[in-house]
Batch of 3 targets.
Target 1
Amino acid sequence: MKIALESPLQAEAVALVAELDAHQAALYPPESRHALDMAALAQANVLFAIARVEGKAMGCAALLVERGHAELKRLYVRPAHRGRGVARALLQFLEQQVAPRGCSLLKLETGTAQPDAIALYRSMGFVPCGRFGNYGVDPLSVFMEKLLMTPQSLRSCPQGAEPGHPQS
């Protein structure tokens, strides 16, 4: 598997995002879907990664990078490739990309109808958190965050704090 930052405007990326949108539409009403559109995915502050096997796109993920943190906005793996660690590899790849950009926190919003996604995020160190950004109250939303261990955060991490888990 090869993962790289690529343009979201290429045909394979557009197809992956369309598949994700169709999947989300089957799970949630329009008011509970908070995805970036294709134009927003092409902005300079968005990192868009594609995972490929033998040159064929099998999954994608996007991070909206803001001052000090990044938000996972898209994560999709084609059904035939699920259960093979593709989503985990995409997230790990993007984490490596944002740490040098000064991001010390990853955030995400997902939905209650996606227990496998929630389990993946928990297994990767994400913990529940409160609403953030412009999200409204929605009983179908689940908010999570993960502290990234950058060189700066390691120096400022409180004594005894477990990496990846902020102190309460």
Target 2
Amino acid sequence: MGTQARRLKLHNKLCEILGSNHVYYQPPESVKMVYPCIVYHRNTTRKFNADNKKYLSYDSYDVTFICKDPDSDIPDAIEDGFSMIRRETRYTAEGLYHDPFYLYYQGGN
């Protein structure tokens, strides 16, 4: 499975968790986002080798859930939805709550 196919699979899973299509991949400043939403950006690819061959490869993403509700259950659902995810510290900006995550994604989880 190629990088774009894995990313589209991730996108669909994030839409499913959120319960809407307000999921944005690397949105430009001009995009008017609808809240609650998930914004994600691609980072590097992490490769693991064994016996001088590529053994595993994971794409990494910065994923942020943004909403107006401080008690939303969506951040827990995001964390529970993936096996290789790290939750970062929540912050508030412009009256919106931001729950950031760092995610490794191979396409299967």
Target 3
Amino acid sequence: MVRELAISLYLLIFSLFFYTFRLLPQKKKTTLVTSFGDNVLYTVKEIEKQTNEPIVILKTAQCKVDFGESSRLSVLEFEVSSPFDWVKSIYHLATSRFVFVDNYFGFLAAARFRHGVKCIQLWHAAGAVKQFGLKDPSNKERMPRALRRFQKVYNRFDHVVVGSEKMAKIFRESFGLSDERMLRTGIPRTDFYYDAKGMERVASELQRSYPAIRDKKVILYAPTFRDDALRSTELALDIGALYHALSDEYVLLLRLHPAIQGNFDNTYPDFVIDVTAYPDIHHLLTVTDLLVTDYSSIPFEFSLLERPMIFFAYDLEEYTESRGFTEDYTGLVPGPVVKTTDELISVVKDGDFHLDEVQDFAREWNEYSVGDSSKRLIKKLYEPERQGLR
């Protein structure tokens, strides 16, 4: 109840500013709101290439991407803790003609954009393992007011960018939107995986930063976030057992979820490299020979590299009950599913990684992400606007 009251107060204050600013003239500009940053980064670069209009990026505290600044680009902190930037952010949202978002943002429930404004959901994942939105199992514990607010937010999306028909179906069900709102241009950040020179340059930079990865194969362990583990850096994976079994051939990059507060106690510094603070997971994937994860969305893009994955789902039954999956988990993921460290070590030593599944998975989930997604997205949205001004 207290949380709902706080949200209602926030939205009330937001709406007072928003509707005041909406009385001002609309500007020919684009505003992007971001928690994750990578899709927004590629989108911004393409807007700069194809248009001449000003760009405003509104960053939440979660976003760690450095967008830089230029005469056309400005970046603001979209947090109440930065009140001046926060009010300026609302002004830009109320006076822009394009608004991009890459996450669920509650403020959209109180932001009825003027006629002609387009709100585009970039989202932050190329695919979905877990249920979310209207399909989230936790909704049954929510108040009716919260559920109505969720739908108001989803209804603000004029377009939802998708990389595959599978994801289009999930978005339709999760957001309660029609197929006409699905924009089949591919996921902007996947353009990175078609830039061979760019990936080679990034890999070289990482090898200079972490010399240990030059001479050994790299395992990247990237577990997803558990709601009850906000302050816990304890791992279900037995790092000691991995060290004794695999350290002659491998090094382990450890990537904890950025929401986790705390430092990992690394007792095997010659084997484990903590890369939690490294800003771009996609860069890390360029040097990864074997990905170990569980319920993360990372595999959807990593599959484009056609490299092996192991799914360490030690709490599969519990997670299934609490979060739910878009489809049967063991049939969805493209690789062996293990529940213990010993099983994981056995799979690594045997080398049976089901690579044929990885290739099929990549084709199915990256159907429209073929290397020019950013270009096609901006051309699709802005070209009709340019033609209308002729």
